[in-house]
Amino acid sequence: MTCIYIEEYDLEEVAPLDIYFNNDNFIVQTNTDTDGMLTLRIEVNIDDEYTTAIYDIARIARPSILIVQGIISFLLDYPVTVYEIVNTKTSRSALPIFKETSSVFKVNGKDLTNELEQILEKISNRKTKYVAISLLDRWRKSLLLENEDDADVLYKDEALLGLFHILEILSNEYSEDLKDEADIKISEFLNRYGHTVMIGERDIERFEKENRNAVKKLLYGGGFTFATRVKFLLSKYDINSEREMDFVDDLIKIRNRIAHGRKTFKNSIGSMFTPFFNNSEGSENEYLLKLLVKKLLGNFFGIDAYNNEYSKQSKELLLPRVQVVKEFLNKPEEFDIKSVEDLNSNAENEFGISWINIYQVYLKNSSKIKLDMMTVKLKVFFSCVQIDDENWRDILCISLIFCESQCADVMEQSKKNIQKILDSKYISTSDLMDENVELESSGIKCDNLKAYILLINHKHSNNGKV
Q1: Does residue 133 fall inside a structural domain?
Q2: Residues 119, 124, 126, CA angle at the centre, nearest 5°?
Q3: For residue 383, what pLDDT is reported?
Q4: How far apart are the C-alpha atoms of 322 and 25, rounded to whole Å?
Q5: How far apart are CA 120 and CA 153, in angstroms?
Q6: Which positions ≥6 away from 213 have C-beta within 8 Å?
Q7: Residues 346, 259 share a domain
Q8: Where is the domain boundary, 310, 328, 359?
Q9: How far is CA 78 from each of CA 145, 158, 290, 380, rounded to the nearest angstrom?
């Protein structure tokens, strides 16, 4: 006899779906009932000898259910959990029933069957099974926390921690490779050093052997740091640019704040009212972290579909170092910035120099970059800006900080840019006030901007125009 446990899920929120696959002891398929409601059905078959009572079937079936939830959640980018269950059934049967049907996984007409089969292959492989399941489970939990948090403030730290858990698991898969490469480099160094200090050729091998362990203990005796392991992991996928390594360093700081109970108090809160002090508050690249983790998960499963999105967004969102911005301000011609269009974020220059990135770097480093010097250097470009659907966000951000310039021409043009963006209804006055709050919460003085916003509000209250 075989025990059968069935769970049915309401997935109307991510319809239309067409799913069928089976693996070892479960069958997964979508059905549409007589009322037209789309449900996902997971059927788990359990050998009767493992159960003591019919009510025990759900407990024994749970690991298989969680595996399936992880697979589907990853492919849908939507958390499938117990909260979507609309029906459960238990029964016994003489034989398990497996349809002789090919796997299919289609979402809104997009065929993800190949991706599904890649994941099933990893789960079926004894060497990769537990890692694959753990990765899918962490991703699903992070998706759930993100999905439950409409304002992106309640479970922000916890959702990010789930992504860091994935990086930890993936980086551990390369720990032996990292150790082997490090050992080779140490041996090469000792060999070169031995020759430098004129140790005889016959004694080089003995010299290496005697000193290798001491050097290893000095460099990584307590194990490689999380940052080192993650950077080594990324290097295996050619993610090793200067901006990407700086991005990783920022992520490590966020991870350590979340994981190790750092002080969370901030005297100033942004426009989004958080119910708690978040350790991750102020980190702008959570979106890019998610894309990076999804790319790495795809690479683990042999799926290339997520590479392009990370590559595209990283070129646009990764910030240059403050020193690079300073160098650009001094010699823009050396950065291939020849016209004002080259400073739009969609231009994607290799250095990451754009209006919005200069704004972000200034927010993080206002004590290291003098605003007046920046406005003088950029005036020749700023005076030529033309606002459109593609660049309005870039121009808004740089205009917000240029409002505080001591250069009257730059300050006045900044106000005109902001007014045009308001008139074009890209943002509202309320949005502009939120932008001002964000600047102040970052420690940026913005008296001129605040006065201009008050003037706008006054004119609007009198049905006038600025």
Answers
A1: no
A2: 120
A3: 92
A4: 55
A5: 34
A6: none
A7: no
A8: 310
A9: 11, 17, 13, 47
pLDDT score of 100:
61
Q: Are residues 185 and 299 in the same domain?
A: yes
Query: Are 205 and 284 contacting, i.e. CB atoms less than 8 angstroms apart?
Result: no
As a whole number, the mean pLDDT across the chain is 87
**Does some domain include residue 150?**
no
Asked whether 306 and 291 are in contact (CB, 8 A), the reply is yes
Residue at a domain's end among 89, 124, 159: 124
pLDDT tens, 101-136? 789 999 998 999 999 999 999 999 999 999 999 999
pTM given for the model: 0.84
Evaluate whether 61 touches 88 at the Cβ level (below 8 Å). no
Q: Which two tokens stand for residue 443?
A: 């420690």
Dihedral angle of Cα 231, 235, 239, 243, to the nearest 10 degrees: 50
Averaged pLDDT for residues 157-170: 92
Token code pair at residue 70: 């992880």
Residue 279 near residue 255, CB atoms below 8 Å: no
Considering its fold, how many domains does the chain have in total? 3
Flag whether 64 is in a domain: yes
The residue type at 432: L
Measured CA distances, 462 to 421, 430, 449, 459 (Å): 21, 17, 20, 5
Output the six-digit token pair for 255.
């991870």
Q: How many CB atoms lie within 10 A of CB 195?
A: 13
Q: Is there a single domain that holds both residue 286 and residue 416?
A: no
The residue count of the chain comes to 466
pLDDT on residue 98: 58
At residue 94, the pLDDT reads 62
Closest CA to 14 of 28, 30, 26, 2: 30
The Cα–Cα gap between 6 and 337 comes to: 61
> 3-class SS at 318?
coil
Q: Which residues contact 209 (CB under 8 A, 6 or more apart)?
A: none
pLDDT one-digit tens code per residue, 15-35: 789 999 998 789 999 998 777
Range of the domain at 421: 319-461
Whether residues 332 and 290 share a domain: the answer is no
Asked if the structure places residue 146 within a domain, the reply is no
- Separation of CA 240 from chain center: 16
**Which two structure tokens, joined as six digits, stand for 62?**
């749970």
Looking at the structure, tell me whether residues 273 and 337 fall in a common domain: no
Same domain flag for 187 and 285: yes
| CA 457/CA 466 separation, integer angstroms | 9
pLDDT digits (tens, 9 = 90+) for 47-78: 766 566 767 888 889 999 999 999 999 999 99
Q: Is the pLDDT of residue 466 over 50?
A: no
